[in-house]
Automatic annotation (TrEMBL):
<protein>
    <recommendedName>
        <fullName>Protein phosphatase CheZ</fullName>
        <ecNumber>3.1.3.-</ecNumber>
    </recommendedName>
</protein>
<feature type="compositionally biased region" description="Low complexity">
    <location>
        <begin position="203"/>
        <end position="215"/>
    </location>
</feature>
<feature type="region of interest" description="Disordered">
    <location>
        <begin position="203"/>
        <end position="257"/>
    </location>
</feature>
<dbReference type="GO" id="GO:0009288">
    <property type="term" value="C:bacterial-type flagellum"/>
</dbReference>
<dbReference type="GO" id="GO:0097588">
    <property type="term" value="P:archaeal or bacterial-type flagellum-dependent cell motility"/>
</dbReference>
<dbReference type="GO" id="GO:0005737">
    <property type="term" value="C:cytoplasm"/>
</dbReference>
<comment type="function">
    <text>Plays an important role in bacterial chemotaxis signal transduction pathway by accelerating the dephosphorylation of phosphorylated CheY (CheY-P).</text>
</comment>
<comment type="subunit">
    <text>Homodimer.</text>
</comment>
<keyword id="KW-0963">Cytoplasm</keyword>
<comment type="similarity">
    <text>Belongs to the CheZ family.</text>
</comment>
<dbReference type="InterPro" id="IPR050992">
    <property type="entry name" value="CheZ_family_phosphatases"/>
</dbReference>
<feature type="site" description="Enhances dephosphorylation of CheY-P">
    <location>
        <position position="178"/>
    </location>
</feature>
<dbReference type="GO" id="GO:0006935">
    <property type="term" value="P:chemotaxis"/>
</dbReference>
<keyword id="KW-0283">Flagellar rotation</keyword>
<dbReference type="Pfam" id="PF04344">
    <property type="entry name" value="CheZ"/>
</dbReference>
<keyword id="KW-0145">Chemotaxis</keyword>
<dbReference type="InterPro" id="IPR007439">
    <property type="entry name" value="Chemotax_Pase_CheZ"/>
</dbReference>
Length: 257
C-alpha cells in the first residue's frame, strides 16, 4: 500500500515538474511560482507523515521500556523470590507430613493394645454373665480389668498428645496458602506481560511488513538505536508515564498515526 502511495506521489511530482517546465518556457512566472508552492507543500506533507511515523515508533518504544523494566524485575527478583517461597512451602509441607506420620505411627500400636485388652476383657465378661467362670478365673478377670483401667489412662493421654501433634502440624496451611496465592499472582502477571510482549511484537512485525524494503530498513535502524538504550530510563517516574499515555495515543491517533 505504501509502495502504491509512493508511485502516486512520483507521478504527481512528474506531472508538476512538466507543468513547471512548460510554464517557465511560456514565461508564466505566476503559474510557475504556484507550481513550485505545490511541490513544496507536497514535500512538507511527506515530511510531516514521516515525522509522525517516527513519533509513533518513539512513543511505542518508550512505552515498551516500562514493560521491559517490569519484566526485568520479575526475572531478576520476584521469580527467584517465588522459587525460594515454593521451596519453603515444600519444606514446611514435608515437616508437617513427617510430624503427622510419626504421630500416627505412635498411635496405631496404642489403639491396637487398647482394642486387644478390651476384646479380651469383654470375652471373659460374657463368660462371667453366663456363670461360666470359676472363682480363680473371676479373680483373674478382676485383675485384668484393674490393669486395663490403670494402663488405658496413660495410653489415652498419649493418644490425645499425638492427636494434638497432628492438629498442630496442620498450621502450616495458613502460611503456605498465602505464599501459594502470591506465587499464583506472580505467574498471572508474568503471563500477562508475555501476552503483551507478543502483542507488541506482532504489531511491530505487521507494521514493518507493510512498508517498502528501504523504508523498513531505515526505521529498523532507528528503532534499534532506541532499543539499544536498554530498559533503564533514569529519572522517569512510572506513574507519570502511565498517566500521560492516553493523551499521547489520542494525539497521534488524531493525526492519523
Amino acid at each position: 500500500m505504501d509502495n502504491e502511495a509512493g508511485m502516486g506521489n512520483n507521478a504527481e511530482y512528474l506531472e508538476l515538474a512538466r507543468q513547471l517546465v512548460a510554464q517557465l518556457e511560456a514565461g508564466d512566472e505566476e503559474a510557475a511560482n504556484a507550481t513550485v508552492d505545490g511541490l513544496t507543500r507536497m514535500r512538507e506533507s511527506e515530511m510531516f507523515q514521516q515525522i509522525g511515523r517516527l513519533t509513533r515508533d518513539l512513543h511505542d518504544s518508550l512505552n515498551s521500556f516500562q514493560l521491559d523494566t517490569r519484566i526485568s524485575t520479575l526475572a531478576e527478583e520476584e521469580i527467584p523470590d517465588a522459587r525460594d517461597r515454593l521451596r519453603y512451602v515444600v519444606s514446611m509441607t514435608d515437616q508437617a507430613a513427617t510430624r503427622t506420620l510419626n504421630a500416627v505411627e505412635e498411635s496405631i500400636p496404642l489403639c491396637d493394645e487398647l482394642q486387644n485388652n478390651v476384646s479380651e476383657i469383654d470375652r471373659e465378661w460374657q463368660r462371667f454373665l453366663r456363670r461360666e467362670l470359676s472363682a480363680e478365673e473371676f479373680r483373674a478377670l478382676s485383675r485384668a480389668i484393674r490393669s486395663h483401667l490403670a494402663s488405658s489412662g496413660d495410653e489415652l493421654v498419649k493418644l490425645k498428645s499425638n492427636l494434638n501433634e497432628i492438629l498442630m502440624a496442620q498450621d502450616y496451611q495458613d502460611l503456605t496458602g498465602q505464599i501459594i496465592h502470591r506465587v499464583i499472582s506472580l505467574v498471572e502477571e508474568v503471563e500477562g506481560n508475555l501476552v503483551e510482549l507478543i502483542r507488541i511484537s506482532g504489531s511491530s512485525e505487521s507494521s514493518s511488513g507493510s512498508q517498502g524494503a528501504r523504508q523498513a530498513s531505515d526505521e529498523e535502524q532507528q528503532r534499534s538505536g532506541i532499543e539499544a538504550q536498554g530498559p533503564q530510563v533514569p529519572g522517569v517516574d512510572a506513574d507519570e508515564a502511565v498517566s500521560g499515555q492516553d493523551e499521547v495515543d489520542e494525539l497521534l491517533s488524531s493525526l492519523g498515526f
